[in-house]
Hints:
Blueprint: H1 2-30, H2 46-53, H3 55-87, H4 91-101, H5 103-106, H6 109-127, H7 133-158, H8 161-169, H9 174-203, H10 206-211, H11 219-226, H12 234-267
Amino acid sequence: MKKKSGILSKIxxxxxxxxxYAPIAVLILFSFNNGKTTVxxxxxxxxxxxxxxxxxxxxxxxxxxxxxxxASIFATILGTAAAIGISNFKxxxxxxxxxxxxxxxxxxxxxxxxxLMLLFTALGIMFNFEMxxxxxxxxxxxxCVPFVVLNVIPRxxxxxxxxxxxxxxxxxxxxxxxxxxxxxELMPGIFSGLxxxxxxxxxxxxxxxxxxxxxxxxxxxxxxxMTHRRLSPKINxxxxxxFLAVLIIMIIINLRDRxxxxxxxxxx
Length: 268
C-alpha cells in the first residue's frame, strides 16, 4: 500500500508540474519558431533580434527596470525600518499594527489601483501635476513595503538581544552596534524582501495601469497594447526572457536560503 501511494503521489506531482509549466514551455518553444503561426516552420532567433530592435519595447523595458530597481530599494529601506519599529511594540498593539501592514498584500490589486488613482488625481488637481513616472514609482513602493516587512519581521524575532548589548559593552556606539549586529542579522530577510519587491514590481500591471497617466509606458502596459493588434512572436521572445529573469531570481533566493541553513547548522 505504501509503495502504491508513493507511486501515485509522484504521478500526481508530475501531472501538476506538466499542467503548470506546459504552457510556458510551449511559449518558449514558439519564440524560436520561424513562422508567425503556431505551425512549426524551423528554428530561428530573428524574433529575439526584432525584439531588441523595437524602440517601443526597449523604452518600456527601460522604464520597467528603473521603476523596479528604485521601488525595491526604497521599499526595502522603508520596510526594514517599519519592521524594526513594529517589533518595538508589545502585545495587542504589535499584532494590530502588523495586521494593518498586511492589508495591502491581501487586498485586491484593483482596489489599490483605483484608490491610488483617486488619490493622485486629487493631489494633481491641488498641486497641478499629472500622473506618470513619479506616481507609478510611489504606487510600487506602496505595495512592495508590506512584502519587505513580511520577510524582515521573522528575522527580528530570531535576534538575541544580548548580542546587541555585548556589542555596546565592547565599545560600539548605538549606530555601530545597530549596523554590525541588527542589520547583519536581518540581512537575509532584507535581501529576500528586496528580490521579492523587485519581482512584484517587474510583474505588476493593474496598479500601474491605473496610476501611469497618459504618457508613461512600462512593459506590461506595452504588452497589453500589443494584444489589441495581431500578436507578434516578439511577445513570445519577450515572455521567455521575463520568465528566465524571474527563474534566475528564484534560484538566487533558494541558493541563499540553503547557504544560510548550512551556515546555521555548522554553528550549531
